[in-house]
Inverse folding.
């Protein structure tokens, strides 16, 4: 892996291999959460590097307990900070050029209670070049070889499986990524009307030209998803992660006629005709509760299975061959279901935390291991926010209050401001709820930039949207009201909706005005 732009890219490429070391816990020694990784999600065991620029590298450390970092056997490696508390923290450092005549090596050791992560660094003699090595971490948790999506801070997503599928972000206001404290990773949050068609606000993984991917699906496959619904199931089909259009496979919450339950639905037949194999769990998702779901289709056994929270909840006969979706819809959608090449439908409302596909038939033991890795017992909390008015741009002063207007806020609600340009900037804010608004206290050390505004209630988080915050020092600059449009300007002798009123509107410098035009001949 040559010609990297800089050490930042090179060093952080390897760190994600350690991100699955721990699971949700009561903070005992066996279940401590501790991860070292970068945004890319790459997991090579070693990469070459060539120092450029300021020779800096960057890692992100996330933990639910205090941690420390020690640089061993290398005074030519520096890193800061060398310790941290709970939460997320950026670690930056430097690898100096090797001016000696011998190759050299060093080690970075991250420690969190009984967990430790060791990253080896080897450097060539008389050079800036070298190699960073992460030893493999043994695990009984299956690895998704066809698709393993990591949602990122900037709103995009990547596939970290061996397939390295392209994940296209179809950006829209109905999809936002945020850091989910419960799962210790970024989640995608969707706010589509349940079951609706949409032209934006979802993720697309096209496999039209990926024959190996298709062959693996056709030979028997498994799918995994972790999701939360923020609205009750209704009389439409709702799909968090699927590829279904007259063929295909995926998950859905069925409509009224089929029980509104979590279902795995491969399309399998012996004659090539579309035939859905409804594999019901008979579990209707509770609003605010997270579900871990695995669907398995075994071509050899001729059956499909669905597991919910580690337990087998349903199976059905599914003998034959997999039928693929119609042309234009051979892609997986996160947040809905493909509806041709340029749109989606069956819109989802809630969180998708995990979306994976395996090219093999997972066993009950495999599924149990997957569930153990993500299990949490979050108490469901229904958050229903309506009539939200959120300024896209706002002037704020550290130490003062910012107002969010909406219906549905409750006493005890919290707000976290997450920087969309730097993972290390995250501000928990004090709040005061009022009648139709929430006052958010801007911290004294707040920095300007674009931020996600994430509401917290109990153990549940709910992203409200984003705003660009400008930091000002003078309160009088907080509010700068302008007339941007008006209807029917008239004053004195200026008639309403006349050409004269349009001229007066232009003098005001507004963007729009209404006036009447009459055709008399």
């Amino acid at each position: 892996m040559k010609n990297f732009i800089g050490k930042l890219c090179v060093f952080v490429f390897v760190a994600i291999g350690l991100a699955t070391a721990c699971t949700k816990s009561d903070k005992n020694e066996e279940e401590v959460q501790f991860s070292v990784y970068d945004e890319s999600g790459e997991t090579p065991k070693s990469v070459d590097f060539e120092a450029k620029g300021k020779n800096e590298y960057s890692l992100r450390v996330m933990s639910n307990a205090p941690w420390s970092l020690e640089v061993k056997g290398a005074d030519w490696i520096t890193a800061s900070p060398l310790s941290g508390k709970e939460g997320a923290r950026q670690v930056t450092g430097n690898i100096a050029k090797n001016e000696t005549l011998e190759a050299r090596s060093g080690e970075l050791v991250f420690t969190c209670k009984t967990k430790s992560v060791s990253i080896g660094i080897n450097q060539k003699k008389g050079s800036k070049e070298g190699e960073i090595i992460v030893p493999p971490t043994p695990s009984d948790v299956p690895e998704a070889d066809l698709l393993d999506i990591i949602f990122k801070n900037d709103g995009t997503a990547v596939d970290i499986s061996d397939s390295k599928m392209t994940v296209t972000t179809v950006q829209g206001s109905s999809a936002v990524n945020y850091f989910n404290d419960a799962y210790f990773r970024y989640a995608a949050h969707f706010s589509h009307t349940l079951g609706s068609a949409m032209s934006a606000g979802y993720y697309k993984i096209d496999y039209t030209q990926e024959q190996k991917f298709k062959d693996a699906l056709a030979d028997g496959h498994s799918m995994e998803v972790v999701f939360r619904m923020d609205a009750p199931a209704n009389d439409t089909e709702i799909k968090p992660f699927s590829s279904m259009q007259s063929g295909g496979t995926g998950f859905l919450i069925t409509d009224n006629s089929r029980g509104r339950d979590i279902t795995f639905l491969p399309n399998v037949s012996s004659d090539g005709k579309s035939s859905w194999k409804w594999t019901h769990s008979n579990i209707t998702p509770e609003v605010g509760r997270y579900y871990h779901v695995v669907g398995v289709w075994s071509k050899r056994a001729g059956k499909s299975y669905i597991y919910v929270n580690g337990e087998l909840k349903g199976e059905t006969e599914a003998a034959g061959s997999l039928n693929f979706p119609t042309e234009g819809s051979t892609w997986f959608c996160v947040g809905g279901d493909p509806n041709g090449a340029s749109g989606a439908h069956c819109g989802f409302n809630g969180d998708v935390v995990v979306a994976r596909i395996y090219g093999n038939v997972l066993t009950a033991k495999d599924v149990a291991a997957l569930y153990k890795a993500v299990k949490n017992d979050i108490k469901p909390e229904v958050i229903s926010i309506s009539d939200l008015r959120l300024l896209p741009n706002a002037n704020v002063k550290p130490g003062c209050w910012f107002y969010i207007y909406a219906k549905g806020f409750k006493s005890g609600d919290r707000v976290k401001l997450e920087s969309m340009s730097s993972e290390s900037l995250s501000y928990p804010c004090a709040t005061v709820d009022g009648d139709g608004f929430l006052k958010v206290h801007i911290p004294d050390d707040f920095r300007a930039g674009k931020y996600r505004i994430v509401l917290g209630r109990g153990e549940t988080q709910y992203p409200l949207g984003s705003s660009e915050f400008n930091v000002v020092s003078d309160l009088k600059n907080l509010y700068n009201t302008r007339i941007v449009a008006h209807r029917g300007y008239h004053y004195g002798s200026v008639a309403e909706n006349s050409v004269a009123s349009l001229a007066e509107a232009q003098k005001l410098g507004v963007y729009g005005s209404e006036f009447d035009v009459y055709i008399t001949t």
The chain is about 5% helix and 40% strand. The helical segments are 7-15, 211-218, 364-374, 499-508. The radius of gyration is 27 Å. Residues 147-374 form a domain with the Jelly Rolls fold (CATH 2.60.120.200).
